[in-house]
Design brief:
Length: about 400
């Protein structure tokens, strides 16, 4: 993928914002267990950073996804994972479906202020008993006049205590689990919503994460995104950008951790020489850098294929799943190896290395666990047992919905 002058300027603008506006505040936000989402996102909206690939008519820049990927990469220079994740929910997890499938009126009411940074948003898919298994969600929305009445609960909702609205996946029918779901914009100040339960997490400490309870919450039916019953399909599409964003936002952070470890081991003396002088150490750091460079190449390739649209959607989905799988595994490998070389200092809570060690562990769980990514890749490679049965079922479902 060729980077233009515009890509480079976007990267510099975003990285400068991260270094000047975010990183100095990270220690405070980590201790507080929350970041000031409205304040930060408003400043980002003023810079035009929240609608890079969103429609111009909604206040976005209308650029292709390669620019969004560069934005995500620059965000990776943040010294914590929680804030970039919260920003990514705003730009790449909760709003893509609305931008593509929402009615003009719905986009004007909810997407425009999200792009300006005047509204904070969440994606509400997971439930306590349905994480990676999206088809198993239990939350329902029944039609009653001009409203949907929603009952259920959502778990692990990023930005959940601060968001103004959520893109929520719910069951709107009794049919097959891949065909009975819908995406609905749910205002978080609606009567019947309880989101006071702020979750205490291992990592991503600066990101507020909530459990949300919904008791007869009434939402106008006009808040439906796309068609009723197409929510699962639309959400699977939305996941592709989420996974690409998550992968791209991890690259620079890993490069920075390796660089910090080189500097530290070059200064740390043990047994008459610096740690870096040990061949096992500098060879290992070279291997880690190679792994991250290889992952970066895969992410760039996937982004290019996604933007050009020359490959079948299934092939791009496979590549995006590979990116998601590898960023989780490479992050675990890099942070574990680097922490080892920092010794006791690396075990201190406020160290960048230990924070990354905690934060990046989520990557192999959230947004689809490693095992789910492997399942998707296997299906695309035609090596999953029961593949023909799977294809027959999907064909029957497609025929039934036609």
């Amino acid at each position: 993928m060729q980077l233009t002058h515009e890509h480079q300027e976007l990267y510099r603008t975003t990285k400068r914002f991260v270094e000047e506006e975010l990183n100095p505040q990270v220690p405070e936000w980590e201790k507080a267990g929350i970041w000031p989402a409205h304040e930060v996102l408003k400043r980002m909206g003023d810079l035009g950073l929240l609608g890079i690939n969103k429609p111009v008519e909604n206040g976005g820049l209308g650029l292709d996804y390669s620019y969004q990927m560069i934005f995500a990469q620059a965000l990776g220079n943040c010294i914590c994972g929680g804030v970039p994740m919260g920003i990514g929910v705003q730009t790449d997890m909760a709003t893509p479906a609305l931008a593509r499938f929402g009615s003009p009126a719905l986009r004007k009411e909810y997407l425009d202020p999200a792009i300006r940074g005047e509204m904070v948003v969440s994606i509400a898919v997971s439930e306590a008993s349905a994480g990676s298994d999206v088809a198993s969600i239990k939350t329902t929305a029944r039609r009653e006049g001009d409203d949907y009445v929603i009952n259920g609960s959502k778990m692990w909702i990023t930005n959940g205590t601060q968001s103004d609205w959520a893109c929520m996946l719910v069951n709107t029918g009794e049919g097959k689990p891949h065909m009975n779901k819908s995406l609905i914009v749910v205002p978080m100040d609606a009567k019947g919503i309880d989101r006071r339960t702020k979750l205490d997490k291992l990592g991503m400490r600066s990101s507020d994460t909530a459990m949300i309870f919904l008791d007869n919450v009434r939402v106008p039916r006009r808040n439906l995104i796309g068609s009723e019953g197409m929510g699962f399909t639309i959400q699977m599409m939305q996941f592709q950008e989420e996974r690409l964003f998550g992968a791209a936002s991890g690259i620079d952070g890993l490069f920075n951790l390796i660089k910090e470890t080189i500097d530290y081991t070059g200064q740390r003396q043990a047994f008459g020489q610096s740690l870096l002088d040990n061949q096992s150490v500098h060879f290992r750091l070279a291997e880690l850098r190679t792994e991250v460079e290889s992952l970066k190449a895969l992410i760039y390739q996937t982004t290019e294929e996604y933007v050009l649209g020359k490959k079948a959607p299934q092939e791009v989905a496979m590549l995006a799943s590979m990116c998601k799988l590898k960023i989780g595994r490479v992050s675990r490998e890099v942070t574990d190896a680097c922490l080892q070389y920092w010794g006791g200092q690396g075990f201190m809570w406020d160290n960048n290395i230990s924070r990354a060690y905690r934060d990046t562990r989520l990557i192999s769980i959230g947004g689809g666990a490693d095992e789910v990514m492997l399942g998707i890749i296997c299906k695309m490679m035609n090596i999953l047992p029961g593949k023909k049965k799977f294809e027959a079922r999907k064909a029957a479902e497609a025929a039934a919905s036609a």
